Every structure is written in structure tokens, then in C-alpha cells.
Amino acid sequence: MWTLAALLVLGGDAKADWTKLEAEHLSNTKQVTFPFVRAGEGYFSPDGKLIIYQAEEKGPNPFYQQFVQELATGKFRRVSPGDGKTTCGYFHPTQKKIIFASSHLDPKAKSHYAPEINQREEDRKAKKRRKYVWDFDTHMEIFEADYDGTNLKRLTDSPGYDAEGSYSADGKRIVFCSNRSGPGNLELYIMDADGKHVRKLTNAPDCYNGGPFFSPDGKKVIFRSDRKKKDHLQLYVINVDGSGEKALTDNENWVYWAPYWYKDSRHILYTAADHAVMGRPNYDLYWMDTHTGKTTRITYAPGADVLPVFSPDYQKVMWTSTRDGRQPSQLYIADFTAPK
Fewer CB within 10 A of the end CB, N or C, for the chain? Predict the structure, then answer.
């Protein structure tokens, strides 16, 4: 297996070698977001013609907003209100609706812009690269809207953070992350698609449990948690009734996150990096058989490759990447050949 250090030693031939390594499972790789400061965490519409993603526009707001884009034309539009922060857009599987989390109702949302912009400028001058930290904004709530952002409807209304939502395959339920039971208790919850009948799924207080997705067969939820070591995420799976919780990874030197189901409700794509190495860990995409634990590395680029998702026909993968490690993150799509 090629390591980042080995690729760097290869110098001018490095790109040829890492793209060759990726060719076993990825082909026709192309960038699909362009005019943004940065973009990422994208998901496909049910017909595969649209994507929803978060991106930072050039302007007064330095935080992510949500956009829907036509893949065929590249035409896009902002579908979130434009104020505050957003995260985790997702398409309803049977209706022309989307969900996303937003802090636009925070009366002080705009007061956070200047400090962030100033901090970035200080970092730039000092040639400093900040460690990624997610702040779990207490004004984050989950909203439903039409594809164009109209008919905005609030689905959650509780003190604290409500975000990271995604639909079940039948569109009847949403699984999400919330700290409604206390500031340090980021647990998973399931609610009806209209926001009613909320029930708690996980029971691991004083840690983070998030990034959940229903399996295609509707029986399980996969997610990430740092319950074993703070900020060192591991992957877990749990039945939708809260039973049968199982850890899929158990290496506290690594960080595992962003798991996403394959069509057979058995295999997953996910993101991982070894944090025991010298310097900055490099994230790549991996494939796992959740029954046997067997893994296969999918990406080898020197930049970060994170947040993989499948197209509705499971023929393509979309993910967030810096590819060469020298540019801001954008979304990429490639044809996918599953490991055997």
C-alpha cells in the first residue's frame, strides 16, 4: 500500500501513481463544484440529476450555506436563507423536498461573521492552518423546504443543537443528532418526517454520537462516536429500535467518520486517517464489509478525501476533496467499481 510519504518521494510522477492506484475502483473522476471559496458534503437527489451541498460564497457571510445544483448544466442556486450557518442538506427520497440544518434564526447570527473573517486573516498572515473544530451551534435547527428553498418549515424546536439529519429510504423518518438532553450529550434521535414523535436512539451520554444514516433496508442506522476517546471517532451500527449496537472500528490512533451505506445494507464507504503519524493526518476513503470487518482503501491522493456518498443507482461516488492538498475543498464525482 502506498503511503503519503512514499508518494511525495516520487515527485513529478506522484500524481500518475496515485491516480493509477485509484483506478481500480474509481474512474472518470471530475470536479463538479467550482465558483465557491470551498464546498462539500454533497448528496444526490432521488433521480440522480441534482445534488445538494454546503458551500461558502464570496461575501460577508464566511459560513456554509446550502445549494442545489443541476449536474448536467452546473447551474446552481442557494436554497438556504443566507444568514447564519448551515449543514447537512439531504433530499427526500419520494417527495420534492429537502432538509438541512440552519442557525439563521439566531438573532446574533451576523455578529459571528467579523470574528471568523478576522481570525482567517490572522491565520493567513501567520501561515497557520487551524485544526478543524465543529462548534455544535446551539441555534442549529432542522428545516424542510422545496427544492428551490421555498416553503421553508421548521421541523425541530428544542434548546440546543439539532442537525445532521437524513431520511429513511421510504421517506417516513429522519434520524438526526441533538444535545436536547444536555450540552455534552450529543445523542441520536429518530422522528417522523414532519418532525413529530421524536424518540431517542442511542444512550451514550457525555460524548458525541452523530452523522447517522439509515440502511437502505431500513433496519439499521450507521453513525460515528467519540465515546472511547474524545475527538477520536469510531464507527458504530445500531438497529432502528435501539438494540444490537455494535462497534465497527476499535483503533484509538485512527479517526473514522462519514460512513455511508452501499445498496446491500452490508458494505459502507467511510473516511479515515491515522492520527499516530507525524505531521498532519491525511484522510482517505475506505470500503468495509460490516459483517466481516474487511476493509479496502479507495483513494490515494495527497489531499484530504472525505464524506463519500453513493448515487441512487450506486454506480457513482461523490465526495469532498482537496485532491492535491493545495486547493480548497470541492465536490468530485467518479464512477465506482465495488471491491470484491
Answer: C
